[in-house]
Design a protein that fits this description.
Mean pLDDT: 82
Largest sheet: 5 strands, antiparallel
CATH class of the largest domain: Mainly Beta
Oligomer: single chain
Organism: Rubus argutus (Southern blackberry)
Low-confidence stretches: 1-9, 384-411
InterPro entries: BACK_BPM_SPOP, BPM1-6, BPM_C, BTB/POZ_dom, MATH/TRAF_dom, SKP1/BTB/POZ_sf, TRAF-like
Region (Disordered): 1-20
Pathway: Protein modification; protein ubiquitination
Structural class: alpha+beta
Distance between the termini: 104 Å
Radius of gyration: 34 Å
Number of domains: 3
CATH architecture of the largest domain: Sandwich
Domain BTB: 204-263
CATH topology of the largest domain: Apoptosis, Tumor Necrosis Factor Receptor Associated Protein 2, Chain A
CATH superfamily of the largest domain: Apoptosis, Tumor Necrosis Factor Receptor Associated Protein 2, Chain A
Number of strands: 13
Strand content: 15-25%
């Protein structure tokens, strides 16, 4: 009687492929940490004749974790080959061994031609590599840096003064391997906690009545953020009734945003907070930024003030630039004021701005700015520039304050 061999397809022997060996990696990064120092030598004629090998030294300065100093030898560093030259060196003035660095020594030409005398190791780094200083006191420079007779008749010497600029690039090498363990650190959420505290109403000890609307807050938070609130709530001339303070000349939505910033240190989403139908580029939010800037100046919130300036700068246009300029003048916003003057000074923009209601308000509220604007336009007229056609909103150099090519929107 025969036997039957049953073979299961799944039980066939298989040959397992060997797993590839684990691969690790590391990266070596070599870079230079750069720094510059300017050394002014006044009274060169008095320093001359101090003797061969004697120097005038700069104050020590730090670059790349090491201290450096510039040494100028008016009579040369050594007697054998430097009798007719001045010598110039950069020295390692702190402890260190085998410090690798690149150097550049420049004697400035003090005339309009600016034909500086430059000896640079940076330009030769691919050929010779960085220079190595073995120990404290090691130097790099030139015994025959400049022939003395030529120096004294050149534009490098002016009013008995020399100006030397030294550039140092300390070479650092850092090798990084794979990070076996890493713990992610969450971003700060302190602002969220403060906002929740404000929204909960817990611990509030002061309230503000603004345009018939009441806002509760915490004295200590307000005092920490604003010196004006600190004086109002805790100063020697504090309000008699600090439980409820009435705020004049401010609308409730503006004070609401002001409180949000005080607790959050950032501007809120205007559409969500105030129910606006458009974003910051809209006329509504531009108006809000104007009112908020005035409030920020009132309570000495400098960061909020700058944020409002930035928003207004982004949205400068024909129909709002005059009121924005008046606001900048009244609240000492010099950067915003410069942007507005620059925008209005373009002839095509100026013609259109003069026709706006905002310009009439500007002439009534800030007449001195009109004089300043006329002077600005007159100065521009003295120089040649090409302005774009109406509606292009080209600034004097064809760009906005950030250097971007722009077309301001007309509303």
């Amino acid at each position: 009687m025969g036997t039957v061999k049953v073979c299961n397809e799944n039980s066939k022997p298989t040959s397992a492929l060997p797993l590839p060996p684990p691969t690790t990696c590391s990266t070596s990064c070599t870079e230079t940490i750069n720094g510059c120092h300017e050394f002014k030598i006044s009274g060169y004629s008095l320093a001359k004749g101090m003797g061969i090998g004697k120097y005038v030294g700069s104050e020590p300065f730090m670059v790349g974790g090491y201290t450096w100093a510039i040494y100028f030898y008016p009579d040369g560093k050594s007697v054998e080959d430097n009798a007719n030259y001045v010598s110039l060196f950069i020295a390692l003035a702190s402890d260190g061994t085998d410090v690798r660095a690149l150097f550049e020594l420049t004697l400035l030409d003090q005339s309009e031609r600016q034909r500086h005398k430059v000896h640079s190791h940076f330009l030769r780094r691919l050929d010779s590599g960085p220079y190595t200083l073995k120990y404290r006191g090691s130097m790099w420079g030139y015994k025959r840096f400049f022939r003395r007779s030529l120096l004294e008749t050149s534009d490098h010497l002016k009013d008995d003064c020399l100006i030397i600029k030294c550039r140092v690039g300390v070479v650092r090498t850092n090798t990084e391997g794979p990070k076996t363990y890493a713990i992610a650190v969450p971003p700060s959420n302190m602002g969220q906690h403060f906002v929740k505290l404000l929204e909960s109403g817990k611990g509030t000890d002061v309230s503000f009545e603004v345009d018939q609307e009441v806002f509760a807050a915490h004295k200590v938070v307000l005092a920490a953020r604003s010196p004006v609130f600190r004086a109002q709530l805790f100063g020697p001339l504090k309000d008699k009734n600090t439980r409820c303070i009435k705020v004049e000349d401010m609308e409730a939505p503006v004070f609401k945003v002001l409180l949000h910033f005080i607790y959050w240190d950032a501007l809120p989403d205007m559409e969500e907070l105030l129910g606006l139908s458009s974003n910051w580029a809209s006329a509504q939010t531009t108006l809000m930024a104007q009112h908020l800037l005035a409030a920020a100046d009132r309570y000495a919130l400098e960061r909020l003030k700058v944020l409002c300036e930035a928003k207004l700068c982004e949205n400068v246009a024909i129909n709002n630039v005059a009121t924005t300029l008046a606001l900048a003048e009244q609240h000492h916003c010099f950067q915003l004021k410069a942007v507005c003057l620059k925008f209005i000074a373009v002839p095509e923009n100026l013609r259109a701005v003069i026709e706006t209601d905002g310009y009439k308000y500007l002439t009534e509220s800030c007449p001195s700015v009109i004089t300043e604007l006329l002077h600005y336009v007159a100065r521009i007229g003295e120089h040649s520039f090409v302005a774009g056609g109406y509606g292009k909103g080209t600034l004097l150099d064809g760009s906005d304050v950030n250097g971007r090519r722009v077309k301001p929107r007309l509303y």
